[in-house]
Design a protein that fits this description.
The chain is an alpha+beta fold. Helix content is about 30%, strand content about 25%. It has a 6-stranded antiparallel sheet with strand order 1-2-3-4-5-6. The relative contact order is 0.16.
Length: about 200
């Protein structure tokens, strides 16, 4: 049984590496990682029926038949660095992300990765894509938040400022909420780069 569990965990970690290649420093290599894989099947196009991933994450990937939940801890030095860079406080060192998989065509393949971020009384699903091993925001979804505002986050990564009135426009969201949301998403983008992003030039 232990051997089977070990194989499943290694498979989950390898899947995430395919999306966001991690060639970072020793801190990332020694970070504790726990992955829980769900394999509940559903007919292609109907969406996954498992409850491991939150409902809003499942809704963001209607073609997914299964999800893998990643739990990865930030080290004290990583937390200090991110908080200093973003001017925010990290509430929990255990960062959660969700990998979506489809079995359409008979082969299991990853179709996306997402996180859930809360700020300003709102909950956002941040969907990431990998560009040469660096996580970038593909899309942000949230109920009750102007889509024009959320669209401003598309294509942004950890190097961007996420500054309301600068590279982010409030677009139908009150400024206080917009600033809270932008700060939270910037923090998440920094965490994703720290935990999963590859080395790159600036």
């Amino acid at each position: 049984m232990k051997k089977i569990i070990s194989i499943a965990m290694l498979t989950a970690v390898a899947a995430f590496a395919a999306a966001c290649t991690n060639t970072g420093d020793a801190n990332r290599n020694t970070t504790n990682t726990n992955a829980t894989t769900t394999t509940n099947a559903a007919a292609p196009g109907s969406g996954a029926t498992n409850t491991d991933a939150p409902a809003n994450v499942r809704a963001a990937f209607p073609d997914a038949q299964s999800f893998t939940t990643q739990h990865k801890d930030l080290s004290a030095s990583q937390i200090e660095s991110i908080e200093k860079e973003t001017g925010t406080k990290i509430a929990d060192k255990d960062h959660h992300s969700y990998l979506a998989f489809s079995t359409a065509g008979g082969a299991r393949r990853q179709i996306g990765a997402a996180t859930v971020v809360s700020a300003g009384g709102k909950q956002m699903v941040v969907i990431y894509e990998s560009r040469e091993g660096v996580p970038y925001i593909k899309e942000v979804r949230a109920e009750g938040v102007a889509q024009a505002f959320l669209d401003g986050f598309k294509g942004k990564g950890h190097d961007d400022k996420f500054q309301v009135g600068g590279d982010i426009k409030a677009n139908g969201v009150d400024e206080q909420t917009a600033r809270a949301v932008a700060a939270a998403i910037r923090q998440d983008a920094m965490i994703m780069q720290t935990l999963y992003g590859g080395a790159h030039g600036h």
